[in-house]
Amino acid sequence: MGRRKGGIGIALVTAAMLVGASACGAGGSDKASGNDDAKAPGKTGASASPSPTKPAGPPMLLETITPQTGTTVGVAMPISVIFTNPVAAKARATVEKHMKVSASQPVAGAWHWFGDRRADWRPKTYWPSGTKVRIDADMKGVSNGNGRHGVHSYTHTFTIGDDVRADVSVTGHTMKVTRNGTLVRTLSINAGSAQYPTWNGTMAVIDKQEKVHMTSCSVGISCDKGSPNYYDLTLPWDVHLTQSGTYVHYSTGDPNPGSGSARGSHGCVHLSLSDAKWFYGQVKQGDPVTITGSPRAKAPADNGYADFNLGWDQWLTGSASGEGTTATL
User: Fold this and answer.
1) Per residue in 131-163, is it b (16+ CB within 10 Å) or e — as a string?
2) Do 86 and 60 meet the contact criterion of CB atoms below 8 Å apart?
3) Cα separation, 8 vs 306, whole angstroms
4) What is the pLDDT of residues 184-196, one digit of tens each?
5) Which residues does 248 contact at the CB level (< 8 Å), separation at least 6?
6) What is the pLDDT of residues 23-48, one digit of tens each?
7) What residues contact 47, with CB distance under 8 A and at least 6 apart?
8) Is residue 295's pLDDT more than 60?
9) Who contacts 255 (Cβ-Cβ below 8 Å, separation ≥6)?
């Protein structure tokens, strides 16, 4: 598979509550999904004094709201809210009702809790392109069920952009890129090897970087410089798919991917240098990349923004208030 120093595929990135376990490379950034600059507006920090009219005690605050306000994102992008402290199961229905989602056209969807600090709202099917979306998280006086009460309200607005999708066939060594239902290009790819297979399923783009530093040691593949699986490289045109480190990118160890070379990666999807640069320019946060034909299972839904890897019935089992329709924006 060419698992030489250059034959790599995944970089581990660690950030709050976006979890997973895979292998391929590592740590070009400690930022995911724009969370560093998607801080909820108006957040003043844990030292903020509650209003005298609100319950006394430590505040309940939001760590992040994604997408960042003012951004344009893809049709598979969820709204992801991360709390600074755990929210008890008994309080989640009330918390959900105070996180109001509005849209410029009616969209059915629901909240889903990944653990006790992360709640995602996703539409039942993909967002319609052009939809304007707003989340109003009015947490003032709302209890988290663990002795904390909200002291702030938060608002984020964003827009759903063009419907850009990438469909990857592992066995066919191809990626088909469509925009608003029209095929734009078919690219040659290589995916993971039998030893390090790529995740199946649909993953919304977390973010992208022009360069990412990837090492085998940071994801536990090999720290032995003499190993054929050892690598320590900085590679270009990286589109980030999972928090455990799956990327679509160019690899110096696999410069001409396709069925002819058939080199396996350590889990990423490899493109040629020119194709990787082109694809990087086409996609944005929230665009769905769907991978089929790998022997690996679907990526866990909370491994980045792979929310659509859960069927709708599965999604609703993690919701305290059930399916609803967006308010009118």
Assistant:
1) bebbbebebbebbbbeebbbbbebebebbbbeb
2) no
3) 22
4) 999 999 999 888 9
5) 166, 175, 238, 239, 241, 268, 269, 271, 276, 279, 289
6) 464 333 333 333 333 333 333 333 33
7) none
8) yes
9) 272, 273
Tallying the residues shown for the chain, one arrives at 329
pTM assigned to the model: 0.84
